[in-house]
Design brief:
DNA repair; Dna Ligase, domain 1; binds thymidine-5'-triphosphate; 16 strands; 622 residues; magnesium; five-stranded antiparallel β-sheet
Length: 622
């Protein structure tokens, strides 16, 4: 759920930079003959010519859209060049695009705090750079303004195209502007300089939005594309938001936006102004209500995170129509491949960036035989992540079996899987000087630490790392109940018996002061795997409701559940920990499902939710 954050007192200069038709540009750099040609990049999938995932602006001119398949694009634009996404392990290999994105990030990060928000977009906090420019070399002569900056689109300026450049130059060096606008003008010049550098050094064009906060910068970065930038002075915010359809805002694209339209008759962000903060809180809860009240006024305190690397890694694959997987052997075959790729990526993240991923999550999309219209979703499952391809494969299969067990609800029926993905999240930096990953995770006083290689000696070859444990308790955690194995069913749950005495001690140590910790402990013991569905569709969420535990609260608990670096939160999984860039890489069905998790609470809720960790969790299952 969106969370309202306090807007800083000092004005900020924030930019959102988004590459233009990014995968197409990467392919055009590889094959310059494609430049200026109608071109599209096609997903690895031969059905009807494959799905288009990126379309050049020339092809868009012919009416080609991303929603089309290759065959349809050819009908609309016979001269279109369709380029297949590179393929590895029988699925799309996005490494080429990822590293192209990294080239751009390296340039953009040179001027201030930089947050890589997806494979092709970043946020920049240019406040300090803009202040410095204002002090040392403020723009004061219209003639000296960089051409690229003079082409900016500035909301609220007269729209006469013949006068546009003159007006922009004048606005950028207005001496009577207030401090906020002067900073913004410097920000626009800095972004123009950065975009020129990106073009010169990578051959890629990008577009940008420049504003006082992330929300507004993101909203306008795509307003004038390709290769343009748009500036939002504070004086233009209300006019801009007045006509902005609610669905244009990322967080309102789903159920919350639909609820605003259907329940409150709100069509534009400006329409929200007619509701008091109390009314919005009553309808959507305290946080979301306040957030809505603030966005209607263009207020957003969200900070640019200092993060050049992805928040998580994910690999997924869809199996449409007749390709659906219908038995465990075929699921295992594909899961093994996805896990192999995931393992390589987290291993290289560890080697190159000294970062460790803590949580492994499996998402799937499934249907039951003879129940194709069933609304029941395959529950996403998480467990602590163990390094090593074999271990990840083993754990992912157990997560799958556990999810399938819940999905089938003990019915003896056939099933089919139409998409699968694995994600490694909760990634943190190993602090420099740490001699042992394990010691760091468990705390220096731990005497139970088995000897493991230190971070620098973690083997690069994933096939060699069978004995590398980042957290030592995972083996028990993912162990199957033999009784359930033996009863002939293919699907298993985690046995409470398998929790070792060490593990019990560890949990007790971690939660010494928490009232009701046994409930949390029991929950873990009985589940072993943490179900990540925060809302209604899953068994877990139903259980949460039965025990009067708000799904929103349960979700929040996983965010707040512990010290980032203590390792205790390795047990939690929160959809907010998944990098949007990764979500975009996952099969579309899974993307929709993840986006579906963000929905408004059904009941008005103004009361404070549980104040102890245990109150977020349902009592133990018997
Ligand atoms: P976008 O930034 O959404 O789009 P784009 O860069 O292709 O075009 P625009 O100029 O309109 O911003 O996506 C970035 C890349 O991510 C895109 O080039 C291909 C990939 N992508 C997918 O693989 N699947 C998807 O569903 C989307 C939306 C994008």
């Amino acid at each position: 759920m969106p969370v309202a954050r306090r807007e800083p007192q000092e004005p900020r200069v924030i930019a959102h930079v988004d590459m233009d038709c990014f995968y197409v540009q990467v392919e055009q750099r590889r094959n310059p003959a494609l430049r200026g040609q109608p071109t599209a990049v096609v997903q690895y999938n031969d059905w009807k010519g494959g799905g288009l995932i990126a379309v050049s602006y020339e092809a868009r001119g012919f009416g080609v859209k991303r929603s089309m398949r290759g065959d349809e694009a050819k009908r609309v634009c016979p001269g279109i060049n369709l380029v297949q996404v590179p393929v590895a392990r029988g699925k799309a290999d996005l490494n080429l695009y990822r590293s192209a994105g990294s080239e751009v990030v390296a340039i953009l990060a040179s001027k201030g705090k930089c947050e890589r928000a997806s494979i092709d977009e970043v946020y920049l906090d240019l406040t300090d750079a803009a202040k410095e420019m204002l002090l040392q070399a403020p723009p004061d002569s219209p003639e000296q303004i960089l051409m690229e900056a003079a082409k900016s689109n500035i909301l609220g300026l007269p729209s006469d195209p013949n006068e546009k450049e003159k007006n922009v130059r004048a606005w950028l060096c207005r001496s009577d502007a207030d401090y906020e606008d002067k900073l913004l003008a410097c920000g626009a010049i800095i972004v123009a300089q950065l975009r020129i550098r990106v073009l010169e050094e990578t051959q890629f064009t990008c577009s940008a939005g420049i504003s006082h906060n992330k929300m507004l910068a993101k909203l306008v970065s795509g307003m004038h594309k390709p290769a343009q930038q748009t500036v939002v002075p504070s004086s233009s915010v209300q006019d801009f938001l007045a006509s902005l359809p609610v669905k244009k805002m990322k967080q309102l694209g789903g159920k919350l936006g639909s609820s605003l339209q259907d329940d409150l008759g709100v069509e534009t962000i400006g329409d929200l102004l007619s509701f008091t903060e109390e009314k919005l809180q009553e309808q959507y809860g305290v946080n979301t209500g306040t957030w809505l009240w603030k966005i209607a006024r263009g207020i957003s305190g969200e900070e640019v995170e200092d993060r050049l690397l992805p928040k998580s890694h994910g690999c997924g694959k869809t199996f449409p129509g007749p390709k659906a997987l219908k038995n465990s052997a075929s699921v295992k075959g594909w899961l093994d491949q996805l896990c192999e790729e995931l393992s390589e990526r987290i291993q290289s993240d560890l080697n190159q960036n000294k970062r460790i991923a803590q949580t492994l999550t499996l998402h799937a999309r499934a249907s039951k035989e003879n129940e194709r219209d069933s609304m029941k979703k395959f529950p996403s499952k998480s467990c602590p992540l163990r390094y090593g391809t074999g271990k990840i494969q083993e754990d992912a299969m157990k997560l799958f079996e556990s999810g399938l067990h819940d999905f089938l609800e003990s019915q003896n029926t056939g099933w089919s899987i139409t998409s699968l993905s694995v994600t490694a999240s909760k990634i943190f930096d190993i602090p420099s000087g740490t001699s042992s990953i394990l010691r760091y995770i468990k705390g220096p006083s731990s005497s139970a630490s088995p000897a493991i290689p230190n971070s620098s000696s973690v083997p690069e070859d994933p096939s060699l790392d069978n004995n590398v444990y980042v957290t030592p308790i995972h083996e028990e955690q993912c162990e199957l109940s033999t009784s359930e194995k033996e009863d002939g069913k293919r699907y298993s749950a985690i046995s409470a018996k398998q929790c070792s005495a060490n593990e019990e001690k560890r949990i007790s140590k971690k939660l010494p002061e928490v009232k009701g910790q046994s409930a949390l402990h029991e929950k873990r013991k009985s589940d072993g795997l943490i179900c990540s569905h925060p809302v209604g569709s899953s068994l877990e969420a139903n259980r949460a409701e039965e025990h009067n535990v708000s799904a929103q609260g349960a979700d929040r608990s996983s965010t707040n559940g512990g010290d980032e670096h203590s390792g205790s939160n390795a047990w939690m999984f929160n959809v907010e920990d998944i990098d949007p860039a990764v979500v975009e890489e996952l099969p579309p069905e899974i993307q929709r499902e993840i986006q579906g998790w963000i929905r408004p609470p059904k009941q008005p809720s103004t009361k404070r939710r549980g104040s102890t960790i245990s109150s977020y969790f349902p009592p133990a299952r018997s």
